[in-house]
Design goal:
GMP Synthetase, Chain A, domain 3; three-stranded antiparallel β-sheet; three-stranded mixed β-sheet; alpha+beta; 136 residues; 6 strands
Length: 136
């Protein structure tokens, strides 16, 4: 896996990032043009975990219409201001969704499949999860 980060050299300090597959992201500490780098880490965790949850629910033949992951994080007060704890709240919408299947999907993502979660936890971040099911 490769990426390139390039300083955009304008009035604020921001960067353009390009993945080896050609996807692009703007990073900006002042949030005028893009997300802060730490926000991208948080979004990456949410994307990684959400991918797992949706995939596992689909494989267990749950009639899922939508999944959202709301993330809340706290950071250390001192530099480096690393994440100290992150909470993931999954909102699963669908028809006749079995609570046991959602619980299992969230647990499997957290404990086995989500690389971002495992990496952050190994770095000392406390990660918690919960979920809510909404019948549609």
């Amino acid at each position: 896996m490769k990426a390139t980060v390039t300083w955009l050299k304008n009035e604020v300090i921001n960067f353009g990032a390009t993945t080896e597959t050609g996807n692009k992201v703007i990073m900006d500490s002042a949030q005028q043009l893009g997300a802060k780098p730490m926000e991208l880490i948080l979004m990456g965790l949410g994307g990684c975990a959400s991918y797992d949850v949706v995939s596992i629910l689909q494989k267990s033949r749950q009639n899922v219409a939508d999944v959202q992951c709301e993330l809340t994080a706290n950071r250390a007060d001192s530099i480096p201001a690393v994440f100290t704890d992150i909470h993931l709240h999954f909102i699963v919408k669908g028809t006749d969704i079995k609570e046991a299947q959602v619980r299992k999907a969230v647990e499997l993502s957290a404990e086995k499949y989500c690389s971002a979660s495992r990496m952050l936890e190994n770095g000392g971040v406390k990660i918690t999860h919960d979920y809510q099911i909404i019948e549609v």
